[in-house]
Fold these 2 entries.
Entry 1:
Amino acid sequence: MGTVQSLIDEYAQSLAALSGNDFQVEVCARLQAFILGFQTVPANPHGDGGLDAFSHHGERGYCCFGPEHDKFKTNRQREAAIVDKFKGDLRRLFELEFENKVLKVSESPEMATILPDGRKINHIELLVNWFESHRILNPILSAAEEYGTVSKCRYVEQAATVIVVGPKQLANQYAVDELTIARARQRVFIQKVQKKAELVTLGSTDKFDLKLGVLKEVAPTQVEAIDALWRELQMAWRMALAFEQELDETLPNLHRVFEANRHRILTRVSQLMVGSGKPWTELERATQIASEILGKDFEKLYGALIQDVSSGEIARLIGECPVGWEKPVTDA
Amino acid sequence: MPNLGHPIETLAVMLQNSDAKPLVVPSRLAPSAIYDVEYRTAVIALLFKEFAKPFGPAGHRRISVARLKLLQFVTLRPWLLPAIREWSRGTSQGSLGFVPSIRIRRGFLSDTAHDDVINFLVACGIFARQEKHLVSGEKAHTLSEIAKSTETHKLFEGEQKVILELTSVKLTDSMMEGW
């Protein structure tokens, strides 16, 4: 019993830790697993009409919101943002907008292309990654009632019910199995790597910067492009280091595999460059080589990161010295 | 974190269009020390010296397998010290939540590189296994010598500082739960 509760708690915390698109994707993946006919609505290219997903033949609608955690200084600000976002979604579903602070009907051309013909939403779930205050309820629910009276109600029943669902409620709604937990851990891992990459400090970059100087000398017309490229290389390098550090802290076994892969990348790239008459052409293929090597062990778990980590690993080879360049020697 | 472009490809094209001379020296990249058996043995020696307790009348010393594994995990990763303090205080004991406790627990439990080194030290007679403990073996003096030499030559000073810090952190039974 304790273990089941632990899994639910862990999942609730993982949902609360996600934000933005990651939160929406995870919520939709979960609901899709349990609700037959759960249909997500792509936001691009025509907009989603305020509806992120629907189910029950178009009678239930779902709107998601995962505000960034460090975006708000106080809970009051967070509450206000959640209320604003969901009121905005409801107005779009009810086909309303403000004109000079007065609610007016504004027909949505997209809703007709989303819901099945003749169906109206009669229940709306507002899914959010933070639901620690009841103060968001009154403004959202009152707004929904007001919108129902002003709207032509072409796609939403006037008396449609609206509920707010937070991470705890969502985690408790359906069974939490190991697959769900693994998926949540994976998403949290990816988010942590991306955040950590912004904070990682590169060790000694003297030799890396020396190469920057030489590159500017051999390509003097591209100084600005080189500076921009250097920032990108450092960012890639930091991403690789963040990935390595996160593996080391949480999955040492995979870190060991990663370390072995690093050695393979170094060997392959060096062999190709040393053995080729056109070494820079081989360097162009280096990221692809790194992706192939890393992909075998990490593609299934962290596919979204492999391309950036691969670039980062090659940037590391340049930064930590095995791959470099120098000015050509002239006879004079 | 913005999505990166293709910086290596851009760099390669830039170099192709220049007359830069390539330098490739694979030996310049040092492998990670974390998989160096001698480095790990030195850390284990320092930890055993600091944390092992006297055991039995024959002058042996022993330490819990789980305790040593957790201690070495943090010693090799000093940035985890604040997290282990928090875990020890119990402020983050939210069952299996995404809190430092579960992240460290998941990490140190799957640290098989440490298990391999311990197996090696047991095979060498430096340690003997006794249920959930490691007891000093017939050649345990080797471990003491390694610890002494490491301290005398001021090697791994960063790790030694972490070990000193760890003496003030209480590793509770609940942290070892399930072990």
Entry 2:
Amino acid sequence: MVWKKMKSMLPAGSYYFSGAEAIAEGAIAAGCGYYAGYPITPTTETLERISVRFRDVGSVFMQMEDEIASICSCIGASWAGAKAMTVTSGPGFSLMQEGIGYAVMTETPLVVVNAQRAGPSTGQISVSSGDIMQARWGSHGGIPTIALSPWSVQELYDQSINAFNLAEKYRVPVLIMAEAATAHLRERVNIPEEVELFDREKKPGAAPFGTEEDDGVPPMPSFGEGEKLLVTGSTHDAYGVRKTADPAIQGKLTARLYNKIMNRKEEIIEYEGYYLEDADIAVVCYGFTARSALFAVERLREEGIRVGMLRLNTLWPFADAIVRDVGSEVKKILVPEMNMGQIVGEVMKYAAGEVIPYNQMNGQVIYPNTIIEQLRRLL
Amino acid sequence: MATELKQYLRPGVALPFCPGCGHRILLRLILKAIDELEINIDDMLFVSGIGCAGWIPSPHFNADTLHTLHGRAIAFATGAKMFNPKLKTMVISGDGDLVDIGGNHLLHAARRNIDLTVICANNMNYGQTGGQVCSTTPKGAVTQTTHGGSPYRPFDLCKLVNAAGAAYVARYLVSQGSVLVNSIKKALQIEGFCFIEAISPCPTQFGRQNRLDTPRETFKFVERMCITKEDAEGLSPAELEGKIVTGEFSNGRS
């Protein structure tokens, strides 16, 4: 069994953290051994806190020359045996896309946090969720990663731990799609006595890049264990030998990389339903927007209006089954997003009824009143 | 290849290099240095980037190898080395990879004095993509993207890396076998960032486009550009124009 229970690194209790600090503490609790990053608003506080706290816990911190170097050095460290993490925002996330693809191809466990700010380009350092489709399609090749959407400081802590577990379990980069609003928010965080951690599976001599099953997750050795590893971003066979002119091996490898995530959707995907039992209208949302949406839904419920909410805690793989179910139960779905319409396209793919987007990209969070207003228009 | 070096090659893989390629010679010289130092190759990690030179260690060396993204080999190596300092880490890649696209990582690793041995196989062009100009192409040389001759000066890689603060910096031709082996041995023993530029002629792409019809002519052309550090002493900048100075350029931090 590769799951283990560990004492939390901080004494159990209630703490008052910013989101950026909670990410750092979550990573430390998860056993992060290597962190590389580059200063960028709104996650510089994570970098700073890690630089101090890693000295206490004996992990390795590097401030690199850019975000490309940050993610690449994390991948190198991951193969040297570390649980590795890098934290950034939009411009850095764009630079990291090639590295994310390399981690997908080489099945490297890795956690990347993107506290999204208002783009495109330098834009504003205010809030947005403009990078949702980039998390799924940003790196060439289009093979899925896992992307999470925390809505509170507590969840930034919890999801940082969860992200490391998912990364180790499925040998995949896990992206935490945080938002500037939660990165700079200060809230209470409860630290439990123990955390449950998953460490990558090791099996000396076994093929590190192939399994009997067409959706398996192979065991992962580290450098220095005498395995004479061949790690490459080129198409490779089960032992890592480059096969750049063999269509069968390219087909088999990419199918397994896809299937190992998509065939495990049920165990990966998390969501929360609120007041959906008798709802005529549902709000499908994620991240900070879900805080406003829940407030709006509860206010309208007080008036006896039958509205509900589906919150997508996991963005990728997409929660198609529950969206299909909710879509068949309600008459209309409102999808408010701090972008010009991203997840709404996925909702339209799977929900039978009418799906209405609400888009706001002015660098402000979507206020509860705005969502109440939008919902009233649908009555 | 000498039988004592064959033990370091991964069974079942054939060397991919063109006839007359300098990289094949360099591959042998690196293994010879490791063999002479009696280093256990299982204690080593070889990191390479994209391009012909990235194939020197991967998959040919029967050791841990990390074949990375274009330009990023040193960043990957930094992460592995910093997390596990016991890994004796060598980066082997080309000039286009390490200097053109990856130059920033090279400078910063040298500045930080990360304990890496970096061997830059300089073939003066982008060989794998068919011979385009790069930052080490001699001024006036013809490539697929400079048909009238390259209008720009090439980088002096050793000056660049020396200025960035490397512990050991040297440049030799791959045809200078024993001195290059000694230089690699030295680099492997010095703690800190060590950089060796191995001038590795490319007859197939660089040679062909510059009317150097045989590997021998390509080697002769490059050898004629080279001058030892000792012979270069006292020469004026004008006299050194277009010359490649070989020797050790350590900055004394070692």
